[in-house]
């Protein structure tokens, strides 16, 4: 009877979302001391030992999927002046942008649904986007979509970039634009976070493409269509499209992709791109670019290693390779003429010796770029010399911060994977709340790759995280499992946060690269000053391996002819070609039971009073119903806290709506007490941010239940929309 008793007593304590990390097979566990083919004393090779590809290296067929002609290289220019957009002062009934408004607050003034009547919230309709894996296709789907609503149109994109308009009350499809994305163009994830609504300043009201819907695609296109009929805007780019692979140099389909909605700031569309992690040092560029929202004309580029060259690369050149990319949703300030770019680290995430000083200054940072010129105005770095994949995945939120003397500062809230939340003056990048440089483990354990002696800590904000791991924190569904995790803990190198990478043994990364806040970001109510954040608590177990060992493990970059799916990708093991090392990354778990080695909770939700910077309430987010050992659901409704990705929204009705969790549910909380007042089981994983709108007197709540391959939640093409059943 011992094991059943232990199972019942500890299944919740040791419960894991295998869902969160199941893309990493047990065979990818760090190989341990047998890997030490590079003696610790061996110096790292010089930076020029691994040369970048020729500027004339061709792009593989299918990279420019629409065969858009490039034309000659363009010089910098300025955007066509724009009219005020709907996100500047959203209509009471609408949700016109990804974060609802120009500040990305994710706050709605709607108050029809309240804690007292939410028991009447029922499904109003389900809309099917038509995008999910086909026969024989490896599941890479993770829609992450938040619809937008303007007037009588609900607009959204599918995981493969089809755009559609549907009736807000019935879900009836009004038009459907087929982007014709190919499966081969999917990078790590098939995702489209949102479309963008744009009103033209040159096309008169009532004419085609006065109001437009814009998206950036997985195969690197900008596309604009008319909001009324879904037909392309012929005056934009080449038949409604712009080729974003122009100037990028050598690449293959799926290496570079756009998943976030590009902001439009003072008439300039600002684009960033996801570069597939873990591939090679000389991956395609992380360049940030501006395009005219009216015409698609190139405006400028910010290219880290070509800092003062803002035009397109000359013939026979390309944007500088391997530079920090940005894949999160950006946001702009029209009054200041700035766009705020959350960056990641340079290519070859876990090895920094080959990075330029320019790259080291702007990696894992917020960079404010002048939208007229492409010049950075200021930089605030959240991690120095990042080798932990602490790229910023969250969209910044803008606010007016009230100082103790009553004056206000135009501020920016930047959540991070570390659980550090930085509050900055968005004019200058200076911290509004205190930030300290604290000692960090250094100089490091990799020859020639020194670590920063200090790292920034936001001491003025509550941390979204827990204390450093201890051996006594190890858990399992039996004493044997707990012992196994204790042995893994002892085997690894761990000296707290920012434990340096190591070659001769694994190291523990805590917070992990899916810790803190990721693409869901936060929600903020300006009237009450309440900030809501849901976040993760999931360590990783990493190890650098020699190039010889990486080859033996079959780690090849995606553009290598010998590459095979599962042989290194955006997460897990990676080739890091053109460097001395490969990387093996896995969850810190018992790979036999699929349970995390650290004690739960693995996901949390927190309410913070931004007037006092104090936690109002905090508790685990996500139940055990769809999670358990060996990947088997327990069906237990216990709130143990699961990994979660996808953000919260706040309503004036006193509610928080959030899905995100691996229990495949959408949850509603009373914002004042933190009590869960409603939930519903979704047909798939809700790894997206919900939204809410009103139409003909009725408030609706919508969530894309598309699931997520990384979280291993069920994949569907279902947009689920709710309304009160007692309101006509």
UniProtKB/TrEMBL annotation:
<dbReference type="GO" id="GO:0047955">
    <property type="term" value="F:glycerol dehydrogenase (acceptor) activity"/>
</dbReference>
<dbReference type="InterPro" id="IPR017511">
    <property type="entry name" value="PQQ_mDH"/>
</dbReference>
<protein>
    <submittedName>
        <fullName>Glycerol dehydrogenase large subunit</fullName>
        <ecNumber>1.1.99.22</ecNumber>
    </submittedName>
</protein>
<dbReference type="InterPro" id="IPR011047">
    <property type="entry name" value="Quinoprotein_ADH-like_sf"/>
</dbReference>
<dbReference type="Pfam" id="PF01011">
    <property type="entry name" value="PQQ"/>
</dbReference>
<dbReference type="GO" id="GO:0016020">
    <property type="term" value="C:membrane"/>
</dbReference>
<dbReference type="GO" id="GO:0048038">
    <property type="term" value="F:quinone binding"/>
</dbReference>
<feature type="region of interest" description="Disordered">
    <location>
        <begin position="431"/>
        <end position="458"/>
    </location>
</feature>
<dbReference type="GO" id="GO:0008876">
    <property type="term" value="F:quinoprotein glucose dehydrogenase activity"/>
</dbReference>
<dbReference type="InterPro" id="IPR002372">
    <property type="entry name" value="PQQ_rpt_dom"/>
</dbReference>
<dbReference type="InterPro" id="IPR018391">
    <property type="entry name" value="PQQ_b-propeller_rpt"/>
</dbReference>
<feature type="region of interest" description="Disordered">
    <location>
        <begin position="26"/>
        <end position="80"/>
    </location>
</feature>
<feature type="signal peptide">
    <location>
        <begin position="1"/>
        <end position="22"/>
    </location>
</feature>
<keyword id="KW-0560">Oxidoreductase</keyword>
<keyword id="KW-0732">Signal</keyword>
<feature type="domain" description="Pyrrolo-quinoline quinone repeat">
    <location>
        <begin position="95"/>
        <end position="701"/>
    </location>
</feature>
<comment type="similarity">
    <text>Belongs to the bacterial PQQ dehydrogenase family.</text>
</comment>
